[in-house]
Specification:
With 254 residues, this protein is α/β, with parallel strands linked by helices. The chain is built from ten helices and seven strands. The relative contact order is 0.19. Keywords: Isomerase. GO terms for molecular function: isomerase activity.
């Protein structure tokens, strides 16, 4: 890649090409993911979304946003403090996501119902807490949908003691097509710049939501969808929709 390619237009060109690739190659996987989401909603389940680091951006894309499904819940390592009573200093540990037992504790704090679907998001798919969450969910009978980079996960060793990676555990895998290390534009002399996984991940999340909503409509059911709180009546209408899932979805300030 030339120096001239490390530019706004270079990133736009390369990322748009990969976005189109994802749109075409992921059709079957998106359909399978939408089946999981629609089945969960139809069974009065909640979509439990979990990720760490920058993957939390995609958790926010799925859980609790305008145009998104109401029965969605964001799981976060910060829940140890917000709902688990731990000292805020625990979050100062940069290796907390590698500590055994963290995912199990987060699962218990969420107290999911059996019909809930777990969406676990990780570009590498190997962080211990990510793998532990997927394993714990499966052990408790939940279906698991993964959003990850297959190129990255195949290029690195497993970190969890089980020797497994997120993609090994999930019922359905959405591949964000990000390269190993995530950055897209090669720099002269080595290294790269500009992450891709959030861009392609958002596309996959919204394609899945759209397809799931279409399945619900085809079955004669109205998808429970949030309206922007910044339009007249939106906030009040959302509160009414949330009543059905009282105590099962968290909507904190962010």
């Amino acid at each position: 890649m030339s120096v001239e390619s490390v530019s706004a237009q270079g990133f736009a060109r390369e990322s748009l090409a990969l976005l189109q690739q994802v749109i075409e190659s992921a059709r079957g996987d998106v359909a399978a993911a939408a089946d999981l989401v629609a089945e969960c909603v139809r069974a009065d389940g909640v979509v439990q979304a979990f990720g760490t680091g920058h993957s939390q951006a995609l958790v926010l894309e799925l859980a609790g946003r305008a145009g998104g499904l109401v029965p969605t819940n964001r799981l976060s390592i910060a829940d140890l403090v917000l709902y688990g009573g731990e000292d805020p200093a625990v979050l100062d540990d940069p290796l907390l996501e590698r500590r055994a037992g963290v995912a199990a504790r987060l699962y218990d704090l969420a107290a999911p119902n059996p019909q809930d679907l777990f969406v676990v998001i990780s570009n590498s798919g190997v962080n211990s807490v990510i793998v532990e969450m997927a394993l714990h969910a499966k052990e408790h009978g939940h279906r698991v949908l993964a959003l990850t980079s297959l190129a990255h996960t195949r290029a690195v060793p497993a970190a969890h003691p089980s020797g497994r990676k997120l993609a090994d555990i999930a019922d359905v895998v959405l591949d964000n097509a990000a390269p190993p290390g995530d950055s897209l534009l090669a720099l002269p002399g080595g290294g790269s710049v500009c992450a891709l996984s959030t861009l392609t991940g958002v596309m996959l999340v919204q394609m899945t939501v759209a397809e799931a909503a279409g399945r619900l409509l085809a079955a004669g059911e109205r998808p429970p969808v949030y309206v922007s709180a910044n339009v007249p009546g939106g906030f009040e209408g959302n509160l009414e929709l949330e009543k059905k899932y009282a105590g099962r979805i968290r909507r904190t300030a962010s």
